[in-house]
Amino acid sequence: MKLKQLECLLGHLQQFSNPKVELEQYPTGPHIASRLLYTAENSFDDISNKVVADFGCGCGTLGAAAALLGAEQVIGIDIDSQSLGIASMNAENLELDIDFVQCDISNLGWRGQIVDTVVMNPPFGTRKKGADIDFLFVALKVASEAVYSLHKTSTRDHVKRAALRDLNASSAEVLCELRFDVPQLYKFHKKKEVDIAVDLWRFVPKRSRGENINVGVRCPLD
Amino acid sequence: MRLLTHNMLSSNIKGVTNGFPLRIEVEKVVEKEVEINHDFLRNIFPKIDWKAFSDASRIMGYVELPEEAPEPSVLESDLEFLRKFHHALLELHLEEGALVCPETGRKFPVNKGIPNMLLHEDEV
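^ Those are the sequences you sent over. The predicted structure of the assembly is below.
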């Protein structure tokens, strides 16, 4: 599938009807979503025929993109039932097979590194401090091959340090810088739209030894 | 929710030492056909907890899977086995029911195929 085609399909997805500011619910626009998944697949082979998880899936944009690019199984995880309802509908409309799980990422119970790739546009941590790193912590426990994530460019050094030093990543690379177009969603938004500079990261987790370990994933700061 | 997802989920309630596998309570199972991918099945096979998977498939009403995991060489040539593996792993959906923590008995409801694994305050 061509990039433009993917971007176009993603543009038809329904987004949050009543976004919740405390969860930092912002739609991942088709421009960013298509580029994230396209890079993951074409540069690194991390999507087609793989098991892909979309953490904090919201309305399911990244998961849908993964499915469209040939992921064998996509699992979308989010804390909010309303978003999951919209994500389900989006998947159905595009005839995509996606499993959804309602869960708080910070206490996700997961049996180890069975998922190949995690893709995510996590909360940036403007409402709940450190939320971005919490998501990364869990993603690196769950993924066996790679984690693709978006973080504010202004946090680049902090994210790199946290990933390599604290979260057991064997590598942490900024693939490119993108503009995240944030529409005027919330009352405190003064402008009609702003662009935030975000880094598209690729993290590689350290592999745990192959045994079936029950990883009760808990965030270290809790 | 497919059994592939079930094979990864565990209970993370405070104090639970091994929350895997979650016991399945069925109210409604739906079958949805998807195209078979032999290479994918061969790759995922070593990662599956077979006992949990075959037990779960039986609860979902599918009795064709062997209780013991077959030798990996079976997946190279036995198309019939691959078909059954594929069917149980990816084509059976728990639409309505619950997932039950094996240690505490706490039920996580499954509605419209989506398990609700949110913990109460005293479980965190």
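The two ends of chain B are 24 Å apart (CA to CA). The mean pLDDT of chain B is 96.

Shout if you want it in another format.
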